Amino acid sequence: MAIQTLDTPRTRPDPARALRDGAGRFLSRWGLVIGFVVLWQVASTLGWVSPAVFPPLDRIAVALWDGIASGALLDDIAISLQRAGTAFVAAVVLGIPLGLLMGQLPAIERALDPLLQLFRQTSALALYPVFILLLGLGETSKVFVIFWATLFPILLATIGGVKEVDRKLIEMARSYGATHLQVFRRVILPASVPAIFVGLRLSATTALLLLIAAEMIGANKGVGFQVMNAQYNFQIPLMFAAIFLLAFLGLAANAVLVALQRRLCRWSVTDR
Amino acid sequence: MTATALRGEVALRHISKTFTLNGQPLPVLRNLSLDIRGGESLAIVGPSGCGKTTLLRLLAGLERADGGQVLIDGRPVQGVGTERAVIYQEPRLLPWLTVLENVAFGLEVRGVPRSLARDRARRYIRLVGLSDFEGAWPRQLSGGMAQRVGIARALTVQPEILLLDEPLGALDAMTKLTMQEELERIWREENVTMILVTHDLEEAIFLADRVLVLSRDPGTVPRLIEVDMPRPRDRSEAGFVEMRRLLMAEFGLH
User: ABC transporter domain: which residues (chain B) (predicted)?
Assistant: First the structure.
């Protein structure tokens, strides 16, 4: 019997190649966005599309800057964030505890589930006139319709998260003598966090979606109102400025939640 | 000395257990009686469905017998207890806790102050050779490492009885052999009663003082085989090979 040792010299890392790889990664992620922006600008300036409908990006940027510098758009952002934020916080404060409870008590979940499914499938926008009738055309009905639509993703995600917790982990904890409260605090709650975050991110998106719809009806302030209003007055650059602002708010909300999730779930590898 | 000699002693008295499968009663254990000495290492082998895991779950207090009694140190088992710890086939680590936190978990839920629990946990992490991984997350560990963490967690509560449910069943052949030697060493050093469910006959011979052979038909009387060989055992030695032949014959294999 012969034993041979295979010793191969190590290859050196190549800096030029690392740079190429980095540039490739950047382009594959952002290339299409850059292409889209460039296409818009070129198409609008050269008149391939009507600049009245798709103004060049520099004019949109100017409109955005003017709006922010004059403070007009800042007021709109403030009121919009207040509406969406109040509704979102209310949905979280109600949805997460209720979901944690319902996920653990099958009897309650069974009883409430048909009602929840019915509410969830009924478009919040269809119910908006009902809320206006009940709560008036003021802030309350706006916040409530956003709250209504925002509640279900977070509630259902939390219930799902609790129900999906690995029974084997619960049994393990019980075999070490953990009490019900300890099982909840140390196993069920942390295990549900990733699912809860999926719900939170879905809810944040929904909140912004409903915010705009609510502000298009009977509002005289807010980013959603500004989109409508600018279009009525044919201030198309301002309209696009407001739309981009909304997209940015959505991205920002998502980024905050992702950062929070990373902090709370350092143990898991889930990204984005 | 009589008081300590009693530690970790298990007595099964006329144990019966029947499950219901699709409305049909399925008896898995029938009138099983057995005495396990304190500090003994007992292996339970048998084909799947023979009730070996059920027996272990009865001992753990995770399941109740339909008839008969399980006595530990003379007291009947009422449920889970602090004098027993279970090691499962899957490591069952909490993914959101580090290795150190996982190992300290058993003590912490029993109300041991955190710093004390972690000091004790460190000792057993060292025993299973993972001191460099105290701060690692379970997802960063290999299967064998994760199982070692599970073993350390069980040892940290310093049980009298260690219940192992196919603990090495999911590991690759090489890791399995290493871990068998580690379990043997731990059993010798920690002075615990070890009850090991396995489907690996060599593992049973390597680790056990006695092997309980269950068959799928609960009507068949279980057999108890004494493994009288010096430790640590040599898997290639003639006595070992002969013992394996004997055990395989129990299942009609050769």
Answer: 10-241
